[in-house]
Every structure is written in structure tokens, then in C-alpha cells.
Amino acid sequence: MGNQLYNQVLNIHLAAVEETLPKYLPKDDQALQKLLYEIMAYACEAGGKRIRPILTLEFCRVCGGDTARALPFACAIEMVHSYSLVHDDLPCMDNSPVRRGRPSAHAAYGEDMALLAGDALLNRAFEVMLDPANRSGLPSESVLRAAFELADASGAGGMVGGQVIDILYENKPIDIDVLEKLQLGKTAALIEAACVIGCHLAGAGEEKVSAAREYGRQLGLAFQIVDDILDATATAEQLGKPVGSDAEHGKATYVSLLGIEAAEKLAEERTENAIRSLEVFKDKADVLREFTYALLKRKK
After folding, report:
1. Interatomic CA distance for residues 52 and 46, integer angstroms
2. Is residue 68 situated within a structural domain?
3. pTM value?
4. Beta-bridge mates of residue 102
5. Burial letters 261-289, b for 16+ CB under 10 A, else e
6. pLDDT for the residue 74
7. Contact (CB, 8 A) for 159 and 100
């Protein structure tokens, strides 16, 4: 089944990710830790939008690369994203009992096992990327650049750092500059990495890598603004998760700081910035342009 956000090209990427991702997750019914494997699979199921792996595959395609060789790396990025959601939902973080319309990992399996499953997914991502079978036919330099990009986006200067800022500023005054730094790490870093990794795997030059980086950064910020707007205007049924949780936890959002109208305007500006950054790819990026506008207009 396709996704209404995507056109035919992106739905092909989506189908490839959905088919392949489970194959890269550990499975052994005889293992003493088989429950861990079950939770890892649970965390990666129920799809979501798969935006990050799709961006990796599309940037690889746009840069003339082999998307089949990029597929393990795209799946690895989705593992990191899934791990981050498992940890975000934990009682010590956002304490969310629902994710994608069903119990979050800790609600279904317990906090201790969910925590460990998240850890395992993060490590599994790099196992998959660095597996000799998965990097066969790719230049070692491209693989190393891709692995570094994912590690950098996931760590203290990226997702983890953004989450730390988020926690430190709960119930405290915050301005737009701090919020942008928070979301550059928490949301935009992994989206940016997904785009850049696709370029690296295709052997793209620095001009295209830089353009993809800027696109990912701008798209990531626009995506978060729309997320904040939907959190304030959509229903839990539409989003498949609780709404209004940021306000309950005393967290600032683009809507709480700017209001809905100004937040919508900023999302449009970020979207246009993302579109402009694609100029170097010329008409090869038309699919990405269409996708960028679709994300701005999404309703869930």
C-alpha cells in the first residue's frame, strides 16, 4: 500500500523500505533474548511516514546512485529514528502511552525492556551500515562518511543534544533562537543526515552534499513547525498519538511562541528555503520539490 504523501517514485522507495527493514532486524526464536528482538521489531512496525529512509533513497537516485545499495543504509536510519521514538515515549521523557495509534513500546513491554530495545536499535543501525555484505560495491570512503553522518546526527550535537535542551527548558522561558537550536538537534539533524547520506552513497560532490544538507535542515525545521501546528489543531485519532502533551509538560513550541498564523508563515518560509536549496539538482529534484510541498500541507 502506498502513502498519499508520496508520488509513484517515492512509493517505490517506501515499498522497498517496508519490505527490507524487517530483514535487517535480528530474529532468533531460540535466543534467550528473543523478547528484545520482538520489541525491536515492534518499534519499527506500524510504519509512520518513513520520511528519513525515503529521503536517503531519493537523494541517492537524484545523484545517480544505486538505490538498491543504499537500501541497508536507509533502513539503518529508520532504526535510529525508531529508537529515538521509543526513548522519547519513556516515562522519564515524554511519558507517552501511545505511538502511531497503538501502545508505545514501554506501555506494551515495560520501561526496562523498551529502554534496552532502543539501545539495541541504535547499535543495530551501525551493524547494518558496516556489515561487509551491505557495503559491498560501495567505496569505503562513502560508507565511512555515511556512518559518520549518522553518528554525528544522533549524538550530543544532534538528537540527544536537542532532547537535553528540551528537558532543560521545561517550564522555563524560552525564545525562538533557543527553540530553533533545540529543533535543529532533536528533529532536523536526522532528516539532514538522511539527505546527505544518500548523496555520499551516490558519490556526489561537495556542492550537492552541501545543498542536500541545507535542504534537510530547512525541511526538518518546517516539518517540526507543522508538527506543532497539528499538535494544537488536530485530534489524537488523526495523529495516532496524544495531542497537547508539550503544553502539559511545560514545553515551548512554535505555536506557543508565535501563534498559529505566524507559525504557518514560518513553515512556508522554511519550505521555500528548502525548495531553493534544490536548484543545483535542476529538474532531477522535481520529485523532492513536490514532496516538500506535500509535507507542508499534510494533515497528520
Report:
1. 15
2. yes
3. 0.94
4. 99
5. eebbebbeebbebbbebbeebeeebebbe
6. 98
7. no
Tell me how many domains the chain contains: 1
Label residue 242 by pLDDT band (50, 70, 90): low
Q: Cα separation of 145 and 200, whole Å?
A: 7
Q: Are 201 and 70 in contact (CB under 8 A)?
A: yes
SS (H, E, C) the chain: CCCCCCCHHHHHHHHHHHHHHHHHCCCCCCCCCHHHHHHHHHHHCCCCCCHHHHHHHHHHHHCCCCHHHHHHHHHHHHHHHHHHHHHHHCCCCCCCCEECCEECHHHHHCHHHHHHHHHHHHHHHHHHHHCHHHHCCCCHHHHHHHHHHHHHHHCCCCHHHHHHHHHHCCCCCCCHHHHHHHHHHHHHHHHHHHHHHHHHHCCCCHHHHHHHHHHHHHHHHHHHHHHHHHHHHCCHHHHCCCCCHHHHCCCCCHHHHHCHHHHHHHHHHHHHHHHHCCHHHHHHHHHHHHHHHHHHHCCC
Cell numbers linked to 283: 529538474
- Residue 157, C-alpha cell as written in the block: 550535537
Residue 1 lies in a domain: no
Q: For residue range 180-232, list pLDDT tens digits in order.
A: 999 999 999 999 999 999 999 999 999 999 999 999 999 999 999 999 999 88
Domain annotation covers residue 244: yes
Is the residue at 3 inside a domain?
A: no
- For the chain, the residue count is 300
57 close to 65: Cβ distance less than 8 angstroms: no
Could you tell me the CATH number of the domain that includes residue 168? 1.10.600.10
For residue 143, the enclosing domain spans 8-297
Angstrom distance (rounded) from CA 116 to CA 119: 5
